[in-house]
C-alpha cells in the first residue's frame, strides 16, 4: 500500500503542484471489470479522478478517446475531458515506463450518482436519452479517424462482429461453453449459467437468421460510446450530470448506443422504451432502419453479453482480473438471464 501511495503521488505531480497534499480513495475496485485503476483525488479545493488505463491501451487509442472527450466537453456536455500535463499543455497522458508502459490521465470529478435503478422515474429516463442524443449530435461533427470528416453511411462494424459471433455460437461454441460450465463447481452462479445457456440456445436460431440482414445493412456511422449503460450515467435529482467511461468509443451506429442504454435502464418495459425513444427523437431523429437496428442491437447484445459472462466465469477468467467481485458478476449475469427468458419466448 505504501508503494502504491508513492506511485500515485508521483503520478499526480505530472499535473498538480504539491501532490503529497492530496487525499486518494480507490474507486470501483472489482466492479468495473475493465482492468483500469481509478482513484478519487482531493487536492486543495478541487476533486479529480486519476485513471490508470488497462494494459491493452495504446497511445494512439488514448489520443482518439481524449480528442473525442475534449470535443464533447467543448460542446458543454456533461463529459470530463482529461487535463493537460503541467509542463506540456498539448499533452494529456502521463506515461510511466517500468516493466511495461503505463498510461495515466487526470480528469475533473463529475457530480452525481449512478442510481437510476434505485430511483427510476420518467423524468430521469427522458434526461438520459436526451443527453445521449446531444452526445451523438456533438460527436457527429468530430471526424472519424479513417474518413475525411463527418458521419457516413456504411455497414456497422459491431453488427458484422455480432453476426460472426452468433454464427460461431451456433456452430459449436455454445455447446463448448456448456461443457465448461458442467465441469465447474456447483453453485448458484453455475445454475444461473445453465439457465443462460438454455435460453440462449432457444433464441439463437432466430437471432442468427436476423443477423444476415444486419451484417449487410448500411447505416449512418459516426463516433459513438458503445458502453453507455446504467453505471456510466450520473444523476443529480432528475438531471444527467455525468457521462462516464469512454474506453470503448468507436465509429459505429448510434442505434447501438440507444439500445445499450435503454436495455440497461428499462429492460423489456416496452412503454419505457417508447418514452425513451421519443425523448431521444426530440433531439435527434432515428431513421426507420436505425430503429429496427436498435431492436436487433438490444436482442443480440443481451444474448452475447450473457455468453461473454459465462465465458469469463467458466472458461477464461483472465479478462476479469485477479480482484473480480464475484457477487457483482453474479448480479450482472442475473439481470441478463432475466432478459434472456423473455427473448427466448418470442
Automatic annotation (TrEMBL):
InterPro entries: Aminoglycoside_PTrfase, Kinase-like_dom_sf. Residues 140-159 are annotated as: Disordered. Gene3D superfamilies: 3.90.1200.10. Residues 39-286 form the Aminoglycoside phosphotransferase domain. SUPFAM superfamilies: Protein kinase-like (PK-like). Pfam families: APH (PF01636). It comes from the Bacteria. This is Aminoglycoside phosphotransferase domain-containing protein.
